[in-house]
Amino acid sequence: MTVGSATRLEIASQPEVWQATLNELKAQQAQLTAQLAGYAATPFIVTGCGSTYYLSLATAAALRSVGVAAWALPGSELALYEQKHLPPNFTLLAISRSGTTSETLWAVKRYRDEHPDGHVVAITCVPDTPLVSAADVVLIALQAQEQSIAQTRSFTSMALLGQVLVAVLSGDSSRIERLQRLPAALTSVVERVGELPRMTGADLSLQRYFFLGSGALYGFACEAMLKTKEMTTSWAEAYHTLEFRHGPMSVVDENSLVVGLISDSIAAAEIAVLKQMKGLGARTLALTETRGTHDWTGIDEVVELRSGVGEWERGALYLPLIQWIAFYRALAKGLDPDHPHNLTAVITL
Fold first, then answer.
1. CA dihedral for 98, 156, 143, 324, sign (positive or negative)
2. Whole-angstrom distance, CA of residue 196 vs CA of residue 325
3. Where are the alpha helices (DSSP H) in the chain?
4. pLDDT at 349 exceeding the cut of 90
5. How many Cβ atoms sit within 10 Å of the Cβ of residue 342?
6. Can you say how many angstroms the Cα of residue 221 is from the centroid of all Cα atoms in its chain?
7. CB hemisphere CA count around 109 (13 angstroms)
8. CB 121 within 8 A of CB 144
9. 103: which of 42, 75, 89, 98 fits an S-S bond (Cβ 3.0–4.6 Å)?
10. Cβ distance 197 to 320 under 8 Å?
11. If we measure between CA atoms, which residue out of 243, 198, 237, 200 comes closest to residue 221?
12. pLDDT score at 3
């Protein structure tokens, strides 16, 4: 079997998997609307582990953007530590690719013990699991199941499930229609970038990777960091974009790649950070909806997403390009993306 064949297939299949996932959820929209009636009035705590904790950050931010109170905590923190700052009543949103992650299940059990009248919503890729059995409402991306250890299409597909949840809770059915644009947008991005991911990943002069994102995009920047570490055993970090100036930029040099996940809201400020990092010697890559009227002079690569979808909804679209860069870097380093160093697909304790 070719090295990395499963990961390659899973990254490449995302447009089709996204479309299948969105079609399934659209068919379930009326059922979900009935199941989730009244849920928006209660705060949400969103939890997961590893990649799904970073997805929890992004999903909680999306919920807040439509007026639903929401915070994210890792499964272990929620399960094992006293959380006296939490509201007395809240809905638990648990995210797990496998539905069997130990700390996430511990968090659900503790929640059930302490909130017997509360509600659990689950986002996952696998049916008939302990998480699914424990939940009141379940959103499943069946087509996104993976053989690989590092999450790629599962993460982005579950991000879309989170977006559907936000749409239903906010009563915004047009959001679900807008999400339908993302599969074709991804296909277009991949065609337009050509050899950029392979060339960037194969450039072993790049030793440090920094992923910057704010607001809607910080959780996705964190996942980009994690994917780079998992697949390539490389130094990778993630920051809120403007926070990068407050100390972390001290380690930027000519062997650094600084990737900006550019928002709509504060694009000018985010572009300015990338330009400053370029001035410090870094290679710079910007992922943006469109170039618009901004001045991109000096930034090495600018990739337009051209999705027609707002920043609070299109987060999944930023990741496949970064997944491809990590994939090709792993191959260049003689690593197998299907079997990352020291990792297993599911953590069970």
1. negative
2. 8
3. 5-12, 14-27, 29-35, 51-65, 75-80, 102-114, 130-134, 153-170, 173-179, 182-193, 196-202, 218-232, 267-279, 319-332
4. no
5. 6
6. 8
7. 11
8. no
9. 75
10. no
11. 237
12. 87
